[in-house]
Amino acid sequence: MNVKQFVNKAIYLISVPLAVGLFMELLVYAQTGGHLVSSVLDLRNLVRDLGVTAVIAFALSLNLGSGRFDLSLGAQRLVATIIGGNIAVSLGFNGIGLLIMAILMGLLAGFGVGMVFSVFRVPPVILGLGMAMIYESLAFAGSDGKGLQLFGVPDIEMLVNPNFTLLVLGLGTLFVFILFTFTKFRYEMQAMRGSQKIAKTSGINVFRHVVICYTLAGGLVAISGVFSASFTGALAPMLGMTSNSAVIAMTFPMFLGTYLARRTNIAVGIISASLTIKLFGIGMVALKVSNSLNTVINMLVFIGFLAFLANERIPALRRRQRARIKEAKEKRIELESVTNVGRL
């Protein structure tokens, strides 16, 4: 890729959140006289939400990109953060140790789901439901229903530092960028998206690839769990599949990021999409839109975007169809003229 292509891609990725941010800034200023980001606290919240959103979207892209929707991701996030976090706190680890312990537990939780899928060949949706209930129960029982409490825990202040959040997010983005750019995982993922049967016939170990996807996704969602727990001071256990709500809410940035990644890498595409959606959300809050109405607006925009994705090729198909019809008519007229000349 030459310098011109790199600059064009960078401008393309920056322009999307910049356009949304500028639009929301003008709207907020016109309605309230204030600004989209008016304080350091707003900036800190933006960095925090960006980190949580992006790493969950990364995790979703690993499986959803191949047609598998892992409904246990929220429970993996829960059990990794609560169990791993409590182990780290009991051992006296600092913030980095707590994060590493949670990631290890997340990798283990994801590996467990991937192995069950590979051994028993359970459909992904059914598997996700079952494993979610198991992991939610483990998180509840493993913490005696208390979850993870970080109030008063020493040496974890770094977890709420925006610079540390950006550092972890940068490392996570770099990891996903390398994974989808310079490793054979990228080619295996592309083959799996086309047809798993063909990918298997071509020599790809499909189930090994699936286990890797589930494992890495578990580690990524664990990062988001630690960030959420550190910013709120606690993470409560959940039952009845409620843990998955935090993950499902991130499907919009994942799909938008995948769309933006057509001109670049999935990692930077998701970062751009996550920042875009977070700026839009901050604008809704600044406009004093209620949570329920905000959710409705976001879902309507999401559904509209999905409708666009489903129909974006129709205009091109119709243009090609009209071109073929026009060409056929011209050939028919030419043939008729030649036939008429022959008769004369």
TrEMBL record:
Subcellular location: Cell membrane
InterPro entries from the UniProt entry: ABC_transp_permease (IPR001851)
Superkingdom of origin organism: Bacteria
Chain ranges passing through the membrane: 12-30, 50-66, 78-96, 102-120, 125-143, 163-185, 206-229, 235-259, 266-287, 293-310
A Pfam family per the record: BPD_transp_2
Keyword Secreted: no
GO MF annotation terms: transmembrane transporter activity
Name by which UniProt lists this protein: ABC transporter permease
Organism: Proteiniclasticum aestuarii
Higher taxonomy: Bacteria, Bacillati, Bacillota, Clostridia, Eubacteriales
